Amino acid sequence: MATMLCDLLDKNYIQYITYIKDRLGHDTRYSIQSTKMNMNATIPLYEGLRHTVNFYQQQFLVTPK
């Protein structure tokens, strides 16, 4: 997700993402069963993220790419 955001913002992810070791005692996996909530994706993740980034750029007067 972070690399997708960097891509949408024309940023080199290597400059903005720092990988850290897992913290002991924390879960290594989080998951939900979305089938129980009757949820289905209506648009692909990247497209939805692109729309969200564009929305916030317009709201906060950041120059879109």
Describe the structure.
It is a single chain. With 65 residues, this protein is an all-alpha fold. It has a domain of 45 residues. 40% of the residues lie in helices and 0% in strands. The protein is built from three helices and no strands. The chain is flat. The model has no long low-confidence stretch (mean pLDDT 83).
Give the topology:
Layout: H1 2-8, H2 13-16, H3 45-59
Features:
65 residues, flat, mainly alpha
Distance between the termini: 19 Å
Q: Could you name the ranges where pLDDT drops below 50 across 5 or more consecutive residues?
A: none
Q: What general outline do the C-alpha atoms trace?
A: flat
What's the pLDDT, averaged over the residues? Answer: 83
Computed over alpha carbons, the radius of gyration is 16 Å
- Give the number of helices: 3
Proportion in β-strands: under 5%
Beta strands, count: 0
Biggest sheet statistics: none
Helical residue percent band: 40-55%
Strand/helix succession: HHH
Q: Structural class given helices, strands, pairing?
A: mainly alpha
| Oligomeric state as shown | single chain
Condensed summary:
This protein has 65 residues and is mainly α.
